[in-house]
Amino acid sequence: MLEERKILTREKRTNAVTAYQGSKKELQAVTADQEIQQRIRTFSQDKKDEVYEALRLLSEIGDTVVIVHGVVGTAILETSLIHGQEQPIWYSTNLDERDTILGSDEKLRDTVRRAYEKHQPKAIFILGTSVVAINNDDISTVILEMQEELPVKIISIYTDGFKSKAEINGIDIVLHALAKYILAEYGEKINIVDIISITESRKNLGELERLTGRLEIKCNIIPQFSCLDDITKAGRAEAAIAVNSDEAEVLLSGLQEKSGVKSIISRVPIGIEGTAAWLSALGDTFKSADRAHAVIEEEERFFAEYLKNKPFAGKKVFIALPIRPAAELALFLRGIGFEISGISAPYIDSLNKDALEILPDDLFIKIGGGQPFELANILGKIKPDFYIGTDGSAAWTAVLGIIPISVSQMTLYGYKGAAELIERLRQAQTANEFGNYLYKNDSLPYKTSWLKKSPDWYVKLEVK
Amino acid sequence: MTAEIGKTRYGCNLQGALSTLEAVEAVVPIIHGTAGLGIQSFAANKSGNGIVGSINGYSVPSTNMYEKQIVFGGGSRLREQIKNTVRVIEGQLYVVLSGVESEMISDDVVAMTQEITDQGYAAAYYKAPGFRGHARTGYEEVVAVLLDQIAGKAPKQERETKSVNIFGIIPQQDLYWQGNLREIQRIMGSLGVKTNRLFGDGEDWQSWQSVPAAALNVVVSKWGVKAAENLRSTYGTPYVFIENPGLGPDTDNFVEIVGEQLGISKNVVDNFLYSEKKKFDYVIRQFAEYYYSYDFRRKISVIGEESKVIRYGEFLKKYLGMQIKTAVITDYEGDSQEQQPVKSLEKIISDIVYSDDTERIEEKLGPDNEIIFGSELEAGAAARLNAELFVIGNPQNRELAVSGVDIGYAGAIALIEKISRIGRGI
């Protein structure tokens, strides 16, 4: 994989599907084929793209600079990632019409030079966008030349925003670049584990670090919230484990390929079973299976009462998260009494479809990032009590009389996450005044005639 | 030719147009381009100045163009999207915004929009590629599109002698756009004048129909001049462009000019301004103790949009005795080296710089600054200069700025309230 200059898109590499509605069983049938007959949306709403995901992830890596090579608006996400003085460093090549006609290589050169002189970073990432991709601007030559001039790694991130419909593709491209150009080769191993985190919040990683600590295993969390050196040295680790293996797959493979770092394949550490599986997998690899067993037993005691009493029996919940965490969360929520009304996930492919196995055959699943118009239709019909989603896409469900839980800012992973989620759900149920106000006073912009239609009305088989 | 920018603070043309349309209820934007540009804008807006309207972020219709359409053309995908948008989303007007990709491959946005117009829907388009213009262009041009939609279509109406439209406050770009529009409305209301804010709560496409009926267009930043010119040539409506609508007593000039244009009796205007000044003086008296305890005769720099820099600059110097070391204007057209500052600003500030590049701005700020009036992007500069940061513009990620105001007497009082914390080490 690392010999290739670019990584293939998720559609080509892993048969990713980004548009589907129906039962889990049908979805399994759809994704079982070698050549998948893709579906498309004939009406769609805006969603994250690969440029968004790549830019967000790169901005969380310390000692680096990102140059967004495109129009100024493709970098504006960054203003949402600043926290006081803690700010990522970014540049926009700010392409104008003249640049799109005459080419933008000189501007890119100037920006690289400026970024280096100002910050002396350990790496400069050049993030591609649609304008440069359509114009076929030559980024590689600029990098080759600048690489001779400046003592810094200059790395092209081959995003374009249109070759793949799965935003996760942006993560793959970043991880491929990190594996290919940043990871150093190591023969000797030290007794630590690389934890690969792509989208989990700091709070979640805090909990996973706590649990790894209880197993007395040292960890190196990359690439989110790490420094470039932490990534460079990741090859020294005995083994690597992802929080969500399909998001992290490219880096896991890279570590294996470059330095023989063993990949520990595990379920996502959400809920009691998922967390136990994750810790056991770690324990087995690091010869501390007994310790893992003891920790799991001790931590699980807290939940015995909930699992026995099922405090949420009779309640329905809809989950909107990527499929691995969604499936694991569904399993946990069923354990405490919930009925799962459905799942919405941005994509499904050969790297994550096994997660479907633990779900009931007739469970409703919607595939595709965003698309609240479909969700409004679906939720209006199945009327769940709770909706568990992420920032930007949960609040609006309150208008339908559903209780939204946005997990983006809370701990969801590990035992602490499970306990926090139970607490949130209880609180949300008893203190829904805000939601009730929205329900009574706000409305959604969708036409009644649409809400009465079948929710998959605009999902069609693609005509080739 | 544009230069690269270190730590950008503004979105692009399309995002400026989108943020403008989102602030008019029942107007539905339809993006024709690749996914994600609107979501970036949504994330940026969420960081502080709200997410307005019922169509924003993930709910904005978008063709989410992908490779096949970029290679073979996206016209038919756009046709399908427009046709289905009117079936799914309630709207009084649908506006297609075509982005970088569709403009580079020359999709026929005009014909596709015409098709739905022919079916009886109110629809318009704006070619908004991010490489042409900037976020302010998006506001200026999409306002022009909305005005063109009214021309010849709005029902004939009598001109209302005491009514104004406000232009030049850019929704979601000006951190305090909602509060500022309301403050102008409050001031006008006190003179018996009706105000069309045109953006924000209760302002929908219907509100825009009464634009031609206004007696006067009031422009409070250079970005509103085009709209006022357009309305003058279409309807003969006069306009006033007031560079400094003021903070505190500086507001008087603005109110007097508008009052005179609308034939409001001088008595009414004077009485109103007198009562406003009484309120302001009551606040100033309370602030005096803090002013001298913490000594507010500080050396400062002001960074922001031109209209903001003028308002803050004049007020902070004339009333609080602050010494302005540098003013940085972040919104301008063309080359930053060839800008001509407005005269009133030149009188009070000798060092006026034009830049929207955060790193370049930082380089311009001298070591003796004690307070930096700017955005969150100036946090690093303020820390290095050991100066206080006072956030007056975007990006801002401290609070949801829905009632914040920095115009008029209300703006001055709010500013004094906020600024009083400085010096107390909290």
Automatic annotation (TrEMBL), chain A:
<dbReference type="Pfam" id="PF00148">
    <property type="entry name" value="Oxidored_nitro"/>
</dbReference>
<dbReference type="InterPro" id="IPR049939">
    <property type="entry name" value="NifE-like"/>
</dbReference>
<dbReference type="InterPro" id="IPR000510">
    <property type="entry name" value="Nase/OxRdtase_comp1"/>
</dbReference>
<feature type="domain" description="Nitrogenase/oxidoreductase component 1">
    <location>
        <begin position="54"/>
        <end position="426"/>
    </location>
</feature>
<protein>
    <submittedName>
        <fullName>Nitrogenase molybdenum-iron protein alpha chain</fullName>
        <ecNumber>1.18.6.1</ecNumber>
    </submittedName>
</protein>
<dbReference type="GO" id="GO:0016163">
    <property type="term" value="F:nitrogenase activity"/>
</dbReference>
<keyword id="KW-0560">Oxidoreductase</keyword>
Automatic annotation (TrEMBL), chain B:
<dbReference type="GO" id="GO:0016163">
    <property type="term" value="F:nitrogenase activity"/>
</dbReference>
<dbReference type="InterPro" id="IPR050152">
    <property type="entry name" value="ChlB/BchB/BchZ"/>
</dbReference>
<dbReference type="InterPro" id="IPR000510">
    <property type="entry name" value="Nase/OxRdtase_comp1"/>
</dbReference>
<keyword id="KW-0560">Oxidoreductase</keyword>
<protein>
    <submittedName>
        <fullName>Nitrogenase molybdenum-iron protein beta chain</fullName>
        <ecNumber>1.18.6.1</ecNumber>
    </submittedName>
</protein>
<feature type="domain" description="Nitrogenase/oxidoreductase component 1">
    <location>
        <begin position="12"/>
        <end position="420"/>
    </location>
</feature>
<dbReference type="Pfam" id="PF00148">
    <property type="entry name" value="Oxidored_nitro"/>
</dbReference>
